[in-house]
Amino acid sequence: MMMYNRILVPLDGSQNADKALDVALGVSKNFGCEIQLLSIVHHIHNDADSLSSKLYEGLSTNAHKIIEAARDRAWNKGLTIKGYVRDGNPKKEICEFAKENDADLIIMGKSGANAFDRLVLGSTTAYVIRNADTQVLVVNA
Protein backbone atom coordinates (compact mmCIF):
# COMPACT_ATOMS: atom_id res chain seq x y z
CA MET A 1 0.00 0.00 0.00
CA MET A 2 1.31 3.44 -0.96
CA MET A 3 1.84 5.77 1.96
CA TYR A 4 1.67 9.51 1.53
CA ASN A 5 3.55 11.94 3.73
CA ARG A 6 2.81 15.29 2.15
CA ILE A 7 -0.36 16.15 0.23
CA LEU A 8 -0.77 19.33 -1.81
CA VAL A 9 -4.29 20.72 -2.23
CA PRO A 10 -4.66 23.63 -4.66
CA LEU A 11 -7.64 25.81 -3.74
CA ASP A 12 -9.50 28.37 -5.83
CA GLY A 13 -12.80 28.69 -3.97
CA SER A 14 -14.70 26.31 -6.26
CA GLN A 15 -16.97 23.45 -5.13
CA ASN A 16 -14.60 20.91 -6.63
CA ALA A 17 -11.65 22.37 -4.71
CA ASP A 18 -13.69 22.27 -1.49
CA LYS A 19 -14.48 18.60 -2.10
CA ALA A 20 -10.78 17.93 -2.80
CA LEU A 21 -9.98 19.50 0.57
CA ASP A 22 -12.54 17.23 2.27
CA VAL A 23 -10.89 14.19 0.70
CA ALA A 24 -7.43 15.39 1.75
CA LEU A 25 -8.60 16.04 5.31
CA GLY A 26 -9.99 12.49 5.48
CA VAL A 27 -6.74 11.00 4.20
CA SER A 28 -4.73 13.09 6.65
CA LYS A 29 -6.94 12.17 9.58
CA ASN A 30 -6.65 8.46 8.78
CA PHE A 31 -2.98 8.30 7.81
CA GLY A 32 -1.33 11.27 9.50
CA CYS A 33 -0.27 13.04 6.30
CA GLU A 34 0.82 16.65 6.22
CA ILE A 35 -1.43 18.85 4.10
CA GLN A 36 -0.18 21.88 2.23
CA LEU A 37 -2.75 24.27 0.80
CA LEU A 38 -1.95 26.46 -2.17
CA SER A 39 -3.99 29.33 -3.57
CA ILE A 40 -2.68 31.21 -6.57
CA VAL A 41 -3.28 34.79 -7.59
CA HIS A 42 -3.47 34.36 -11.33
CA HIS A 43 -2.38 37.04 -13.71
CA ILE A 44 -2.17 36.20 -17.37
CA HIS A 45 1.11 37.96 -18.16
CA ASN A 46 2.75 36.73 -14.93
CA ASP A 47 3.33 40.38 -14.04
CA ALA A 48 1.49 41.90 -11.09
CA ASP A 49 1.91 45.37 -12.62
CA SER A 50 -0.34 44.33 -15.51
CA LEU A 51 -3.34 44.44 -13.17
CA SER A 52 -4.51 47.53 -11.44
CA SER A 53 -3.22 47.49 -7.90
CA LYS A 54 -6.78 47.52 -6.52
CA LEU A 55 -7.82 44.48 -8.56
CA TYR A 56 -4.62 42.66 -7.65
CA GLU A 57 -5.15 43.41 -3.96
CA GLY A 58 -8.69 42.03 -4.21
CA LEU A 59 -7.48 38.80 -5.82
CA SER A 60 -4.73 38.46 -3.24
CA THR A 61 -7.13 39.10 -0.36
CA ASN A 62 -9.51 36.48 -1.75
CA ALA A 63 -6.69 33.91 -2.04
CA HIS A 64 -5.73 34.49 1.60
CA LYS A 65 -9.38 34.18 2.70
CA ILE A 66 -9.65 30.84 0.87
CA ILE A 67 -6.58 29.56 2.74
CA GLU A 68 -7.84 30.83 6.11
CA ALA A 69 -11.27 29.21 5.63
CA ALA A 70 -9.59 25.90 4.77
CA ARG A 71 -7.35 26.16 7.84
CA ASP A 72 -10.46 26.69 9.98
CA ARG A 73 -12.08 23.57 8.49
CA ALA A 74 -8.96 21.55 9.26
CA TRP A 75 -8.73 22.97 12.77
CA ASN A 76 -12.36 21.95 13.44
CA LYS A 77 -11.36 18.38 12.54
CA GLY A 78 -8.35 18.49 14.87
CA LEU A 79 -5.80 18.90 12.06
CA THR A 80 -3.16 21.53 11.46
CA ILE A 81 -2.26 22.40 7.89
CA LYS A 82 0.11 24.78 6.15
CA GLY A 83 -1.22 27.34 3.71
CA TYR A 84 0.54 29.30 0.98
CA VAL A 85 -0.45 31.98 -1.51
CA ARG A 86 1.61 32.42 -4.67
CA ASP A 87 1.42 34.66 -7.71
CA GLY A 88 1.57 33.31 -11.24
CA ASN A 89 0.03 30.85 -13.63
CA PRO A 90 -1.88 28.25 -11.58
CA LYS A 91 -0.95 25.34 -13.86
CA LYS A 92 2.75 25.94 -13.55
CA GLU A 93 2.72 27.06 -9.93
CA ILE A 94 0.96 23.88 -8.76
CA CYS A 95 3.54 21.63 -10.45
CA GLU A 96 6.49 23.74 -9.28
CA PHE A 97 5.20 23.99 -5.71
CA ALA A 98 4.65 20.23 -5.52
CA LYS A 99 8.20 19.58 -6.69
CA GLU A 100 9.81 22.24 -4.48
CA ASN A 101 7.96 21.02 -1.39
CA ASP A 102 8.27 17.26 -1.94
CA ALA A 103 4.55 16.59 -2.24
CA ASP A 104 3.92 12.92 -2.94
CA LEU A 105 0.26 13.42 -3.82
CA ILE A 106 -1.75 16.29 -5.28
CA ILE A 107 -5.48 16.20 -4.55
CA MET A 108 -7.36 18.72 -6.67
CA GLY A 109 -10.76 19.47 -8.10
CA LYS A 110 -11.82 18.36 -11.56
CA SER A 111 -12.44 21.94 -12.61
CA GLY A 112 -12.03 25.26 -10.91
CA ALA A 113 -13.77 28.55 -10.40
CA ASN A 114 -12.38 30.34 -13.43
CA ALA A 115 -14.23 29.56 -16.66
CA PHE A 116 -12.01 31.97 -18.60
CA ASP A 117 -8.96 29.83 -17.81
CA ARG A 118 -10.70 26.69 -19.04
CA LEU A 119 -11.74 28.31 -22.31
CA VAL A 120 -8.62 30.28 -23.19
CA LEU A 121 -5.76 28.63 -21.38
CA GLY A 122 -6.97 25.05 -21.11
CA SER A 123 -7.72 22.95 -18.07
CA THR A 124 -5.43 23.46 -15.10
CA THR A 125 -6.24 19.96 -13.89
CA ALA A 126 -5.33 18.39 -17.23
CA TYR A 127 -2.03 20.30 -17.26
CA VAL A 128 -1.17 19.17 -13.73
CA ILE A 129 -1.99 15.54 -14.55
CA ARG A 130 0.32 15.67 -17.57
CA ASN A 131 3.17 17.61 -15.98
CA ALA A 132 3.35 16.89 -12.25
CA ASP A 133 6.20 14.74 -11.00
CA THR A 134 3.89 13.08 -8.49
CA GLN A 135 0.57 11.26 -8.36
CA VAL A 136 -2.61 13.32 -8.81
CA LEU A 137 -6.03 12.47 -7.40
CA VAL A 138 -8.83 14.34 -9.18
CA VAL A 139 -12.02 14.97 -7.21
CA ASN A 140 -15.43 15.93 -8.59
CA ALA A 141 -17.94 17.66 -6.31
From TrEMBL:
This is Universal stress family protein. Residues 3-139 form the UspA domain. The lineage of its organism: Bacteria, Bacillati, Bacillota, Bacilli, Lactobacillales. Belongs to the universal stress protein A family. It comes from Lentilactobacillus parafarraginis F0439. Gene3D superfamilies: HUPs.
